[in-house]
Amino acid sequence: MPLPWLLGATIANAVWVLSLPGKLNPVWAPPLFRNVFVAVIGVMIGGLFTVDLIATLPGWWPGIIALIIYCFVAQIGGYLIYRRIGGLDRATAFFSASPGGFVENIMLGERAGADVPILSMLQFLRIVLVVSIIPFGFLLWTGHAVGSAAGADFGGGGAGTAVDYLILAVAGAFGLALGLSLKIPAGQVIGPITASAIVHLTGLVEIQPPAVAGIVAQIVVGSSLGTRFAGASLKLLLRTSRLAILGVAWMLALAIIFAAVVHMITDRDPTLYVMSFAPAGVIEMSLIALTLGANPVFVTAHHIIRLFVTVVVTPMLYWRWLAKK
């Protein structure tokens, strides 16, 4: 399988918790434990920042503009699918259709009076479906195993001393604490990315965390995804699965179209833009980009912007035009 550690852990835990209905709480996976390994992912991404990479930032603007437009089009189309085909109320349909911001859109939807169980499951299935489809899409596109399934090693970066690893650990812990204390969206990964980028750009350290840390991070993130199925009824799962497949198909098809257009403008690899537009979580897509070697800094930067747009900007559409009807 592509991404065997991530997808294997997701599938195994989903099967496990669904076979034990009512016996596990949906938040059984300890958030702090997960965040520690999310910080590992952030440290790995931050370690890929270089002066040469920063110099290419001005050339990213076509993709960023396209991404902002994509968020609006995906949101509107998804809303119509969930409203017209799914028969959901306005609040549930709108916030379920958001192509980013899993936790934030559940909170916004609850405030707007949405059906929280349906909203939560649709938002969660969006992430699970995209995380499952993208790696297999790369496998079909390239015709051979990709990422960790092909033996790729995205950790290491040379032998380090105990001091090197201590600096990385401190940077990750500090970045995690700062990101969580500021309460910014995806702060648990943005904080460590920033701290790691600083220590690498200043030359304090040149290595990456060991490869085994990346493998464990995939298992932990995948397991936490799978355990979110705990407590879901079969009826709710079946109803939302059909809708989620339609919604994700729309978002991914749109992402491919936008990626093709931006590719013609910039001549960058179109698969890189597909990864950047794919409507999964920042953490999950950052991890996939790392394992597939798809310029994780570029992909993560686009997903952070997508998160901002879907959490801060597009919700204004609801409050402006739908909330008072």
Key phrases:
325 residues, mainly alpha, 15 helices, globular
> What is the CATH-assigned architecture?
Up-down Bundle
The domain tally reads: 1
Q: Hey, roughly how much beta strand do the residues contain?
A: under 5%
Q: Segments where pLDDT lies below 50 for 5+ residues? A: none
> Radius of gyration, Cα only, in angstroms?
19 Å
Largest sheet: none
On the 0-100 scale, what is the average pLDDT?
90
**In one word, what is the shape?**
globular
**Structural category:** mainly alpha
Span between termini: 47 Å
Helix content range of the residues, please?
over 70%
Commentary on this structure:
This protein is an all-alpha fold and 325 residues long. The protein has a single domain (4-20, 28-322), classed as Na+/H+ antiporter like fold, CATH 1.20.1530. 72% of the residues lie in helices and 0% in strands. It has 15 helices and no strands. The N and C termini lie far apart (47 Å).
Which helices and strands, and how do they pair?
Layout: H1 4-18, H2 31-46, H3 51-55, H4 61-85, H5 90-96, H6 102-111, H7 116-142, H8 162-181, H9 187-201, H10 211-227, H11 234-266, H12 270-277, H13 282-292, H14 296-313, H15 315-322
Helix pairs in contact: 1-10, 2-8, 2-9, 2-10, 2-13, 4-5, 4-11, 4-14, 5-6, 5-7, 6-7, 7-11, 8-9, 11-12, 12-14, 13-14
